[in-house]
Design goal:
single chain; 365 residues; alpha/beta; seven-stranded mixed β-sheet; 22% helix; globular
Amino acid sequence: MMYWIVTIVVVLIISYFIVINGKAFGGVPKGKRLERIKQSKLYRKNKFQNISHTPSIAEGYNMTKVTLDFLFGKKDPLLKPLKEIPSVYTDLRKLDKNQDVFIWLGHSSYYLQTDGASFLIDPVLSLYGSPFKYFNKAFKGSDVFKPEDIPDLDYLVITHDHFDHLDYPTAKSIRSRTEKVVVPLGVGAHFERWGYPENKLIEEEWGTETKLKNNIKLIFTPARHFSGRRVKQNDTLWTSYVLDTPTKKIFLGGDSGYDTHFKMIGEKYGPFDYAILENGQYGEAWRYIHTLPEDVIQAAIDVKAEHIIPVHAAKFALALHPWNEPLQKITSLGKEKELHILTPMIGEVVVLNGSDQQFSTWWED
């Protein structure tokens, strides 16, 4: 009996190491990259730290119970949409390169063109927001864009390395069409393992300003979150970005719980023409690492945004709220504060040089 138990344990351990070392899990920072990480002021006690103390779960909640409820608890009947999500397929390859546009690709993935440069942010364009097929599948209608739809890119921009923001199949597919990759410190290890040359990587930490083409500046700014594609967390950095171009300022929020950094960013780099902010996949238990809708509103006020584009919803069920609740709440709260919330369908073109576009309440159909 003991022999079989030992055999099963050994097989499980070997299987785990085979899986965790698969390409989808990326690389581990080492060598020069690891030395840079260790010298960072943001890296203490063998991991990157947030500005404020940030527990993974809020006071009054039990991690075991929260996990069990998420996996096995009774689900809201609208956790996933009952029918196909409305969307628009826009051929990104045929866009006028001189037109300044934003196109949401679902969840936190979006395509930007501004000032003659193209950007793809946090692309997850395979059918699953996880390292495994058949787990965390995209809602029907939210998956109209595939990796092969992405045109030649000036910049691939990654906010952090979680699987719902950095997808190996997508990164692999667009490698030959990507001029430069912008990542927070440590995340470059994944891209090098996936065949991206070091000279394609712009890999920095908060406070770093890098010059891009056409007099565009990109600034790495704080976020309140965490990272990791393996068991160890926070061995790579997470970030937000300020995109400062000759014609506009755009805040790329990434994933973040609410904190003082939003006000700091607004005072130092604002006001912003557009703020693209996380709004979805939240819960009271996770409020330190994901903004609740009321926090998104305050963050938009803090960064001094004229227009707010909410993302991080309507593609995957990563929390227990109804799939359309984030959009219902953000639009309602935005009206109360007289804020301009832009809510395009997936694939719908947002013209960044116009402020009078109106969008339907497509999530209510």
